Amino acid sequence: MSGLAIDDAAWASAWRPRSPGDKVLVSLGLVFSALLLPVWPGSVLVGLVAVGLALGPARVPARTFGRAVRAPLAFIAIGALTTVVEVGGGGVGWAPDAAARAGSLVGHAVAGSAAVLLLATTTPLSDLLPALQRLRVPAAVIEVASVTYRMLFVLLTSLRTIREAQTARMGYAGLRHSYRSSGALAAAVLTRSWDRARRLQEGLAGRGLETGLRVLPETLPASRRFEAASVLGLAALTAVSLVVAR
Where, by residue number, does the polypeptide cross the bilayer (predicted)? Predict the structure, then answer.
């Protein structure tokens, strides 16, 4: 399968053979560190460690990681803007502690996003779903996530095919044609996705499937050495952050 750069990077990552539990330990530890430690130097260190692990040992392409972080950065920028604006009797103005608020929000959010992307770019969803099942996450939640994951590639294939056909017919030659082609593209993709979901549901119902799809997951053994190094690294990061913050 192809079409999602993050998914392709996860399959090609050097950390792909590692147990999902090992990678979840590192990522969740960094996320909690980003949320609980002071922005300086805690969040800065978390962000640097997450990016360093992704580009270094995990060998995630820098371009892929940079493209993946653009969307979270846009939401973070919008959120930071809303925190520094204050509405009062005198109208709209800057909050008294605007710089501190914005800096704290951006620092925690960017570090946490980098930690989550570390997991996303090193662990395919097909590895995470069995791990969630072992953690006794409701089967309905796992099934919805699995079907949504599979449908993404169908939608991306349809999107690429229709857009190539429109481009070949000069559908994007000019602003007016671009608006019309974009509307037709969205309508066609939504219609195809709805039809594909309906046919999938009817096919499963016709086979009498009342439970989730049973598959044989790949067993990836955990590494005690990796887990110990992760815990020690997180502890050292926490200690350095607290010492410098004081």
Answer: 25-56, 68-85, 105-125
